[in-house]
Specification:
The protein is an alpha/beta fold and 292 residues long. The chain is 37% helix and 16% strand.
């Protein structure tokens, strides 16, 4: 009988994305085991959909809570609780979030990159949409993790206006502020579609969020703003990561959604010109329009 390894996932979509390297590693180390991922919502499981290293995806239910608690005590199954946010990682670690999560799972990673698996039809749909635009850049302007992680909205408007040879495409929730001049896809794409758009766009620009982590899965070069978040924990080498390294940062694990007493200076100090220069550095202007 195969041993069953239950991965109990906490946190938001970004946390789930950061956990993806452990599934391959667990499968490599325990090839005869059955890997079962337990999510707390549809969105979490959408991130993990089609992952070849996960045998079963399940929603958390009262049945599962009691079921694997009993079997775990009987040592019939192995349960791994992934709740690394409770560790306040930006205070206690200087290593990657995926490595912290691997430690919680009792393993060491041979690959730290995020792993997301899209189907061919998802790729084609994203390519088809993006083929209508010149130099499409996906933007995401906010983060659920921290209201302090917000670049001034006028800066977004100015950035879009200052680069007319690029098409900015805004992803996010329908109630998020709209960026003037950007193609408005707020609330119009699901999680899988959003990930595919990031994969096939020229680039990504935004705050630290689920979407900024998705860039790492596809080695997509982007520009990511680090204000209250820790670059060493949540940064990815594929991006140009902008941080002002203020003495009060990182504060995300301390303030949570409490108001920054310094007026979000770490985000205010990131200039439009600095972001434009970063976009130019990743060579967007030398690339051709996307085709199927």
């Amino acid at each position: 009988m195969k041993q069953k390894i239950y991965i109990n996932l906490y946190g938001g979509l970004g946390d789930v994305a950061l956990s993806t390297p452990i599934f391959k590693e667990l499968k490599l180390q325990f090839p005869d085991s059955k890997i079962i991922a337990i999510g707390r919502g549809k969105g979490q499981l959408e991130v993990l959909k089609h992952n070849p290293y996960i045998d079963t995806l399940r929603y958390l239910s009262l049945f599962y809570k009691f079921f694997y608690k009993f079997l775990r005590s009987a040592k019939i199954i192995k349960v791994i609780n992934i709740n690394y946010g409770s560790l306040r990682p930006s205070y206690t670690y200087t290593k990657k979030a995926s490595e912290i999560i691997a430690e919680m799972a009792g393993i060491k990673l041979t690959e730290t990159n995020i792993q997301i698996f899209l189907k061919e039809e998802e790729d084609i749909k994203a390519k088809t949409l993006l083929s209508n635009y010149v130099n499409p850049i996906i933007i995401h302007i906010t983060s659920i993790a921290s209201k302090n992680q917000m670049w001034p909205h006028n800066n977004w408007n100015e950035l879009v206006k200052s680069l007319p040879d690029h098409t900015f495409i805004q992803l996010g929730l329908a109630n998020e502020l709209k960026v003037e001049g950007a193609v408005d896809l707020r609330g119009k794409t699901n999680i899988r579609e959003g990930m595919a758009l990031i994969k096939h766009a020229y680039s990504f620009v935004g705050v630290v969020s689920f979407f900024s982590h998705v860039t790492n899965a596809f080695n997509k070069k982007g520009v990511v703003f680090f204000g209250p978040s820790s670059l060493s924990v949540w940064g990815h080498e594929n991006n140009i990561n902008i941080s002002k390294n203020l003495i009060c940062a990182p504060c995300v694990d301390f303030l949570k959604n409490a108001e920054c007493p310094y007026g979000k200076l770490c985000m205010q100090m990131i200039s439009v010109d600095e972001v434009k220069e970063a976009i130019e550095q990743i060579g967007l202007r030398q690339q051709k329009p996307v085709g199927i």
